[in-house]
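Data card: per-record layout.
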Amino acid sequence: MERIAVFSDSHGDFYSLRRAVEHQLEKSQLFVFCGDGLKDWEELQFLYPSKKFLAVRGNCDFGCDGPAVRMTEFSGRRILLAHGHTFYVKSGLSLLQQSALENQAELVLFGHTHLPQTFYEEGIWYVNPGSIGSPRDGKKTYAFIDFPGRSMVPSILPVL
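The structure for this 160-residue chain is written out next.
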């Protein structure tokens, strides 16, 4: 079974990010970071060069290059990656949902709110892993998505 591990908003908490990534190293084929801590993410890529890492830039990733939104494919599914600030996700998800539909995404991975969230609507899974570094609810979290057959099964986990 294939798996994506998803992280966001480390804001300099490299220790928690590394612990969570290490917990998923043998189980995940793709590691995704949804912004606000790209410098932390870049350090991890040097530690694990054989793993596949993808990221988007967040509103606090000053001086970092890279897209704020990108499309990718994994396990035959179209995936929209975004930090979320360009879609104003703190005010609602309608712009993000519109983009997902326009891009024919089957899975949307986003951050920015610092709160974990998963839901399914109009044939699309939406997953926000919460914040690995500065959660709004006090619980550091990340997500993973399993791909058994043609299904997708997202889960939110606490950082241990």
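Known properties of this structure: The chain has three helices and ten strands. The longest strand covers residues 141-147.

See the next section for split statistics.
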